[in-house]
UniProtKB/TrEMBL annotation:
Protein name: Aromatic ring-hydroxylating dioxygenase subunit alpha
Pfam families, sorted: Rieske, VanA_C
Organism: Stappia taiwanensis
GO MF terms, alphabetically ordered: 2 iron, 2 sulfur cluster binding; dioxygenase activity; metal ion binding
PROSITE patterns according to UniProt: RIESKE (PS51296)
Domain of life (superkingdom): Bacteria
Rieske domain ranges (all copies): 14-119
Length: 352
């Protein structure tokens, strides 16, 4: 965590992009987990992900063409199906015999869920169902085919560790998120006390009531409560529930490589009248997330000198949990044993 770079966890599902970014017959090249990935949607609507390098001469396949069934390289016309297998080499002479089925560009398991495209990065070439995280996590209250009503993404010039620690930090808001519409009296710190408990691949701020004086929550009905979960490989899931409506917010942290990260914020809401307010809400979301982005860019100025960082109780306990979870994931995989969540239930106290 002291360094600019982060170790990237494998054997897990990562958010690649919203489903809406890729129409049928289209493809999108990205770098994820330090690897070239080509994401596409076949003519039948199914999504796929290939290693974005032609095995012939190494040119990225994204520079080629996709006819809805096969991807054709722009250099020599080699074609690959959506599973990554070569199906045609145009330059093959009639006198030659080449078994194209033995040639592959490589593929990743891809799945659509909750209006997002998830990609699985294996540890040792395993299929997700044979690994330690068979499927992406389901969101509470919303069907697996429910798409987010709002989604934004900002690239963070920092490692996934520092992006994660910044987003789970409970005490920075008074100094980073200062806008006329949020934390107007930011420097007036108040005592906070929240119970936490281990949850799947992470931990949760135990469900609790939200302040009734907050007008924004009144649209959800009475007795509004919230639970906030953090989970590997970089997910923050907030579930706000009232007597009438519920809202789920998902923040995903996906490494581009060891020093660059994509941070997405997405929301699902049961209220049907959100649509007219989308432009305003999207603007406010972007301003808020950009404040986090700017502070980690500033942080890099100091981190390049590799200082010894100081984490304190209780404000930085969640940061410690994050690193402990990562260490246990790597260690349990190397030792070929079940993952054992190192987080223990406790109450944390801080000023914010």
């Amino acid at each position: 965590m002291n360094n600019l770079e982060a170790d990237l966890l494998r054997g897990l599902w990562y958010v690649a992009c919203p489903s809406s970014e890729i129409a049928a017959g289209k493809m999108l090249g990205k770098t994820l987990m330090g690897e070239p990935v080509l994401i596409g949607r076949a003519a039948n609507g199914s999504v796929f992900a290939l290693r974005d390098i032609c095995p012939h001469r190494g040119i990225p396949l994204r520079h080629g063409w996709f006819d809805g069934e096969t991807v054709q390289c722009c250099y020599h016309g080699w074609r690959f199906d959506t599973g990554g297998t070569c199906v045609e080499i145009p330059s093959t002479h009639a006198a030659q015999t080449i078994d194209t089925s033995k040639i592959t560009c490589g593929a990743y398991a891809a799945r659509e869920q909750n209006g997002l495209i998830w990609i699985y990065f294996p540890e040792n070439g395993e299929r997700p169902e044979d690994g330690r995280q068979p499927a992406p996590p389901l969101l509470p209250d919303f069907a697996a085919d429910a798409a987010p009503q709002l989604a934004i993404m900002l690239p963070f010039v920092c490692s996934v560790d520092h992006a994660a620690l910044g987003l789970m930090d409970p005490t920075h808001a008074a100094f980073v998120h200062t806008s006329w519409w949020f934390k107007k009296n930011a420097k007036r710190l108040r005592p906070k006390e929240k119970p936490f408990a281990p949850s799947e691949l992470g931990w949760a701020m135990v469900r609790h009531k939200l302040p009734p004086q907050n007008i924004a929550y009144k649209v959800l009905g009475d007795d509004v409560t919230t639970e906030i979960r953090y989970a590997l490989p970089g997910l923050r899931i907030e579930h706000i529930q009232g007597s009438k409506h519920s809202v789920v917010g998902l923040t995903s942290i996906t490494p581009i490589d060891s020093t660059h990260t994509e941070v997405r914020q997405m929301f699902w809401a049961s209220m049907g009248w959100v649509r007219p307010f989308k432009p305003l809400i999207r603007h406010l979301m972007t301003v808020f997330l950009d404040q986090d982005r700017r502070v980690v860019v500033q942080q890099r100025e100091g981190l390049k000198y590799n200082p010894k960082l100081m984490l304190i109780n209780d404000a930085d306990t969640q940061g410690r949990w994050w690193m402990q979870l990562k260490d246990e994931w790597v260690r349990s995989g190397a030792e070929n044993r079940p993952f054992q969540n190192p987080v223990k239930a406790r109450t944390l106290r801080w000023m914010s």
